[in-house]
């Protein structure tokens, strides 16, 4: 992939107009555009089809996590919306992950990339102490275990922090897709994500796709901000 093809711009806007305006501005310049919960809840599946018409593939980031039958139906519906990649929570377990994979295959969606969320980048070791996980498990240990589970269930890859990449690459190999949020160019604020990395550091650690939102979409000139990030990882 070229540097630009590695970038997935997060279209985290509350309205169709804002989402589509940014999609049209950047869709021909990047490999992926992400439609998340905020925009999808406001506008529905038709927005995915419109964003897909901008030139980039669509990552529909809804993080499905429910009983196997419900997630299977949701994955099939999401793919029919025009998305090229959808995600589920790996912590939903083997039965849920396998049901999602089978649903995509039955629908004739072999080209759909199905990936699993390992551990949200907003969760660090301190936050995990309040959750029912082993105190001895570091974030990268949890992410690695969930990635191995996802791979064994036939998923194409995972969403993970850049700090988890070395463990996941070692356990799952170089062909396993890694989609990495929490990307912050040098000098950018951390904001609401705790386990972050610069674009260059994430690619060096083994990231395939970098999910970047506000550093691009919130910039005075989004195209200039995008070009700066492309230069950093070229």
Helices and strands in order:
Elements: E1 7-10, H1 16-26, E2 32-36, H2 37-43, H3 45-52, E3 57-64, H4 68-80, E4 85-89, H5 94-106, E5 113-117, H6 125-128, H7 139-152, E6 157-159, H8 165-172, E7 177-180, H9 199-205, E8 209-212, H10 214-217, H11 222-233
Helix pairs in contact: 4-5, 7-8
Outline type: globular
Helicity range of the residues?
40-55%
- Biggest sheet strand order reads 1-2-3-4-5-6-7-8
- The name of the CATH superfamily reads Aldolase class I
Using the 3D structure, state the CATH architecture: Alpha-Beta Barrel
Biggest sheet overview = 8 strands, parallel, barrel
Q: How many individual β-strands?
A: 8
Overall tally of domains: 1
For the termini, the CA-CA separation is 10 Å
**Low-pLDDT windows of residues:** none
User: CATH top level?
Assistant: Alpha Beta
Per DSSP, the total helix count is 11
Mean pLDDT: 90
Task: Write a structural description.
This protein has 234 residues and is of the alpha/beta class. The chain has a single domain, classed as Aldolase class I (TIM Barrel). The chain has eleven helices and eight strands. It has helices spanning 16-26, 37-43, 45-52, 68-80, 94-106, 125-128, 139-152, 165-172, 199-205, 214-217, 222-233, and strands spanning 7-10, 32-36, 57-64, 85-89, 113-117, 157-159, 177-180, 209-212. An eight-stranded parallel barrel has the order 1-2-3-4-5-6-7-8, surrounded by seven helices. Helix 4 packs parallel to helix 5 (94-106) and helix 7 packs parallel to helix 8 (165-172). The longest helix has 14 residues, at 139-152. It is globular, with a radius of gyration of 17 Å.
């Amino acid at each position: 992939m070229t540097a630009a093809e590695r970038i997935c711009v997060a279209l985290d806007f509350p309205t169709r107009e804002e989402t589509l305006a940014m999609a049209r501005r950047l869709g021909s310049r990047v490999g992926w555009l992400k439609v998340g919960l905020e925009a999808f809840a406001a506008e529905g599946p038709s927005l995915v089809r419109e964003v897909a018409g901008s030139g980039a593939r669509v990552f529909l980031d809804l993080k499905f996590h429910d009983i196997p039958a419900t997630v299977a139906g949701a994955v099939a519906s999401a793919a029919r919306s025009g998305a090229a990649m959808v995600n589920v929570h790996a912590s939903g377990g083997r039965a849920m992950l396998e049901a999602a994979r089978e649903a995509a295959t039955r629908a004739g969606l072999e080209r759909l990339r199905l990936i699993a969320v390992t551990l949200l980048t907003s969760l660090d070791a301190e936050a995990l102490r309040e959750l029912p996980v082993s105190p001895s498990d570091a974030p990268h240990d949890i992410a690695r275990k969930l990635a191995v589970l996802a791979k064994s269930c036939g998923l194409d890859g995972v969403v993970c922090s850049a700090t988890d990449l070395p463990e996941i690459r070692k356990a799952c190999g170089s062909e396993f897709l890694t989609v990495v949020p929490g990307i912050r160019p040098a000098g950018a604020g951390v904001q609401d994500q705790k386990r972050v990395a610069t674009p260059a550091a994430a690619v060096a650690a083994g990231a395939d796709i970098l999910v970047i939102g506000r550093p691009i979409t919130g910039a005075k000139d989004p195209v200039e901000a995008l070009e700066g990030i492309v230069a950093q990882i070229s």
